[in-house]
Amino acid sequence: MNRATSGVILVLIAGLGMAATYFAQHVSAPGIAAQQRLIDSRNLLDMLSPDSYDNQPLELPLTLTDHTLANSTLLAGYRATKAGQPSAVLLRSQTTGYAGTLELLIAIDVNGMLLGVKTLKQSETSGLGARIAEWPNGWLQVFSGLSLADTGNNGWALKKDQGQFDQITGATITSRAAINAIHDALRYFDEHRQALIGVNSHE
Description:
This protein has helices at about 5-45, 140, 170-190, 195, and strands at about 75-80, 85-95, 100-110, 115-120. By secondary structure, the protein is α+β, with helices and mostly antiparallel strands.
């Protein structure tokens, strides 16, 4: 075998190797991307019990109306379902904290009870208001299980504002902003429940 023939064979082998690598990546890419979406979704929805839904809520956003609220703005909404039945609504809420934008994901069950609250974005002071981004978050967990029915409107405030909630130590403005946004979300759910959970008006 002369040198030219060997060179051609090496080029063919390298070409076949690159083609095989490209084909493998092309075939596996959708699966890898889908798996990554599941991981991202799970991280975002980790305040919901995994057995409480079987759809991909973030892939089916709800159409929201009247999204500018008293103390916050709703950026998006999602519905979690189990066997085709609604199990929870997630509202992505934006408000203003001490140092800038504060964005929360607020999960509410079909009866209007808070399932959890998670901070998605914040620009608060390190060591003070920025602690609202910690996960799990002891301060935000206080709100789980509450609803408008068992917490009057006046109760949705800091104790220093004659409400019923403690603040994050050293972060009055951050705490107040979060409470107001959560209260806004619960009121929005109460007013738009049928549309949010997909219940027809005649049911």
